[in-house]
Amino acid sequence: MSVWEKLFGNWGGAAARQFDAGGSNGSVELTRRHPTFSLTKQGAATGNLRVNLSWRMRTSDFGERPSGGSGLSALRHPLRKFTPQVVQAQGPAMVDVDLDLACMYELQDGSKGVVQPLGNILGSVNSPPYVQLSGDDRFGSGSGETIYINMDHRDDFKRLLIFVYIYDGTPAFDRTHATVTLYPGNGPRLEVALHERAPEARSCAVVLIENVKGEILVRREMKYVYGFQSELDRLYGWGLQWGRGYKTKV
Would you say the pTM of this structure is higher than 0.70? Predict the structure, then answer.
């Protein structure tokens, strides 16, 4: 065996194990291969479950070539992908975007609603719905936005849908370095990266937290839609009434 093999022969296997299990940094990445995590079996279904959205506006990489198009744009212009790309001047282009973290909830008593920055519907962690939002981060600060879920009231929950929507700016989830991280009261943190290309998508259902016969399960969803809350509502059959809302200017 060569010196190289002795030093780096197991690197590929170790990298794969780190990707699946989250490595030694105390985290688990929810992936397509491993989308579900039981908080109950990990003894993590108590205390406050903290759900954080971190993101930042990113400058696009020079020389990045857009895809050939998809959805309605591709149907209306089927020959566009054969058109030579316009060469732009070198320099970064700022992706201006405002991401919001939100949660649709359904309790065992049948009550339903949403906790979100829009409309300043921040909820409450000590009374129904036992879900509370920290506030609205419009600029991608280090702390981001955080939702607190009181897992001591887990028996009151039926399902919670954690989702992210682009309130304003460029619809480009894959260029915002956005990550949703769940911090249970005990055990490893759970990470979901919003890096998939979804041209023109405005909202993304990230994870669904369900009470299944007393077991609290977290399941990776990663379903992108072109509309906002009402479209996610229809997708998951929540049955809420939605109206247009706006934020105050800063």
Answer: yes
